[in-house]
Recover the amino acids of this structure.
């Protein structure tokens, strides 16, 4: 009891931090979103995303976020399978895929990517050497997608890697033993067992790729207007904090609603384990190769 | 039943690349249809490796593996009509018991009602009826093992491989599961290849025991012959407990142990050949001083329930006896033996044979 108290005390700094930098700004934004310049209550800013310019930006953001998330998933699985084959430890995995890229500043990485992709950049130079026509990637949606995938792929890989490296080799061998070829082993065992990791990965990648504006700014050359860019401009250039806040709130609500789809599922899958009757609990239990639902972040 | 070979190993050698050590060395073996064969040997002797090569998880470095006379050395595990019961069960944690057992049948695209019928039947066989909907993590070790067995035999494989399937269970549960496995074996009539390092388990369950050490077959035979007529000191020592002592074969039926000439029944040795003499503890009898072939000092007596475990120091050797009459520690007694209970074994000669010796 006493110890619990003390543990709770340890959480105080975190609570203070959250209140100071998350909750208070959130309320400030909420307040701005619900009043007009004269301070009268209005919902027009929250519904401002319905206007044609904003709605278009919203849809493009959504489209890019979905495409990026899908590409990340499609890239993450084969990469993670290769990493598993190499028997790399969790620590070196994190170091290699997460920490090392962070040694280089995010903006610098994006600028480097811009130089590679620009119309007379490294990529087109290489293509020219090989006798191919140049590609017009810079300042397009494609450039933004490449940037987002490049930046967020590790965050998709990590939770998937975590669940997949928890799968015992003998479980995969059991599947093969029972008649599953390599593809079936993946579809029937690896994929379902990595679902918790996949869900975290989607959450971690989808939300920021929907709201990011820096990548679109740098790689889109100011031509790609994502909802994040519009919000940013309302706050900075137009100084219309009320509209910026309104759009932010609607974006947040949208995120919350889309997240409940994945989270709701998670709650449903957890329930059966908790419903085991007392009599069953009394039996000795072997903690076998159960997948832990541990995910990072 | 026809005495045909279902599995054959021909000159199978397995060398692991990483360290170049040989796990299985030039093994030749034939398993007959319907047989219960057990690989028995100490840790690291290559039992699992042999089993994994039969299952297809490892490929032999050289040699070939035949199933019903057909070479399956290069066949992947999913194409072999062989199923495995893994030591750590290896159940699918994301599937319930029903789906775990139905896994193989679903891959074979059997109709749903046939799958249901087979799963129900096999669950009854392993005494787990009604557990279909349960989660694997909520089962006890013994129950998980039953599911693992059910998941393998429901596919009606030609051969069932079991790698220390009872290794993780406590003693009492083990004994129960041993009987259970033998009953299941009778019911399904599948060839069993079983791995254990527990000699009691091997002796109880098997039709034939393959004793292995350091990747080499030391002896194969039915449990009685393995126990009663071990062919070398390693087998004698590994199967049951034994007194193993140096001796000299003076002539047929006479061996000299510690300077004492003792009558035996073994023949066919060179005159004055150095041999290993193997005597089971239960064959030695405590007698009055001077009445046996040697005398010694009782150093230790422990009551083991069914018998007394007695140590008697005679010259430089401590004899190990199991007797149903006790002796007083600190007293001197005689030890006697019947000639037919003495086993005489050749000493290993070449370096290759040296491996056969227990380390
Ligand atoms: N994947 C591997 N890589 C390298 N060496 C291996 C590998 N698997 C097994 N070995 C080696 O091969 C030898 C035989 O191993 P194996 O697992 O077959 O023994 P075992 O008889 O099953 O032992 P245990 O009773 O401990 O399970 C051991 O020396 C082991 O270290
Ligand atoms: Mg083993």
């Amino acid at each position: 009891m006493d110890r619990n108290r003390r543990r709770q005390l340890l959480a105080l700094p975190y609570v203070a931090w959250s209140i100071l930098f998350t909750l208070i700004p959130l309320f400030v934004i909420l307040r701005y979103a619900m009043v007009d310049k004269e301070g009268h209550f209005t919902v027009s800013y929250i519904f401002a995303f319905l206007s044609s310019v904003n709605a278009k930006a919203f849809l493009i953001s959504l489209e890019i976020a979905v495409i990026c998330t899908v590409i990340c998933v499609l890239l993450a699985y084969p990469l993670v399978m290769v990493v598993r084959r190499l028997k790399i430890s969790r620590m070196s995995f994190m170091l290699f895929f997460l920490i090392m890229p962070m040694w280089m500043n995010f903006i610098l990485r994006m600028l480097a990517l811009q130089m590679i992709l620009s119309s007379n950049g490294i990529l087109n130079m290489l293509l020219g050497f090989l006798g191919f026509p140049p590609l017009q990637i810079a300042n397009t949606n494609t450039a933004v997608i490449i940037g987002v995938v490049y930046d967020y792929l590790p965050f998709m890989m990590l939770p998937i890697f975590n669940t997949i490296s928890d799968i015992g080799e003998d479980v995969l061998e059991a599947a093969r033993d029972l008649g599953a070829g390599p593809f079936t082993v993946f579809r029937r065992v690896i994929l379902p067992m990595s679902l918790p990791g996949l869900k975290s990965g989607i959450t971690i990648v989808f939300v920021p790729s929907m709201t990011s504006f820096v990548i679109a700014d740098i790689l889109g050359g100011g031509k790609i207007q994502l909802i994040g860019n519009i919000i940013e401009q309302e706050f900075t250039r137009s100084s219309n904090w009320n509209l910026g806040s309104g759009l932010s709130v609607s974006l947040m609500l949208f995120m919350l609603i889309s997240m409940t789809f994945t989270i709701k599922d998670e709650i449903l899958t957890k329930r059966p384990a908790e419903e085991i009757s007392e009599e069953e609990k009394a039996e000795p239990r072997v903690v076998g190769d159960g997948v832990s639902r541990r995910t990072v972040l | 039943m026809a005495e045909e070979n279902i599995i054959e190993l021909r000159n199978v050698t397995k060398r692991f690349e990483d360290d170049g050590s040989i796990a299985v060395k030039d093994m030749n073996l034939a398993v007959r249809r319907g047989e219960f064969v057990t690989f028995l040997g100490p840790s690291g002797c290559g039992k699992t490796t042999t089993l994994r090569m039969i299952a297809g998880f490892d490929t032999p470095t050289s040699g070939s593996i035949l199933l019903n006379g057909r070479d399956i050395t290069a066949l992947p595990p999913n194409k072999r009509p062989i199923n495995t019961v893994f030591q750590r069960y290896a159940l699918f944690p994301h599937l319930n018991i029903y789906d775990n057992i139905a896994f193989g049948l679903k891959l074979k695209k059997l109709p749903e009602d046939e799958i249901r019928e087979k799963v129900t039947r096999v669950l009854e066989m392993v005494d787990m009826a009604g557990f279909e909907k349960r989660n694997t993590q909520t089962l006890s070790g013994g129950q998980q093992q039953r599911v693992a067995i059910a998941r393998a035999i429901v596919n009606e494989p030609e051969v069932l491989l079991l790698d220390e399937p009872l290794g993780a269970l406590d003693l009492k549960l083990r004994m129960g599961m041993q009987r259970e496995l033998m009953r299941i074996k009778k019911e399904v009539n599948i060839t069993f290849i079983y791995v254990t390092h527990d000699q009691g388990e091997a002796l109880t369950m098997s039709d034939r025991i393959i004793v292995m050490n350091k990747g080499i077959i030391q002896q194969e035979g039915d449990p009685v012959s393995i126990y009663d007529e071990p062919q070398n000191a390693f087998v004698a020592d590994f199967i049951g407990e034994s007194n193993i002592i140096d001796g000299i074969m003076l002539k047929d039926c006479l061996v000299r142990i510690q300077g004492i000439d003792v009558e035996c029944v073994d023949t066919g040795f060179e005159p004055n050949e150095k041999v290993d003499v193997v005597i089971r503890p239960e064959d030695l009898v405590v007698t009055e001083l001077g009445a046996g072939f040697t005398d010694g000092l009782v150093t230790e007596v422990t009551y083991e329930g069914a018998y007394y475990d007695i140590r008697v120091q005679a010259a430089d050797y401590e004899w190990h006896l199991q007797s149903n009459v006790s002796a007083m520690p600190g007293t001197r007694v005689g030890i006697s033996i019947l000639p037919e209970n003495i086993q005489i074994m050749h000493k290993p000669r070449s370096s290759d044979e040296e491996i056969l010796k227990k380390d």
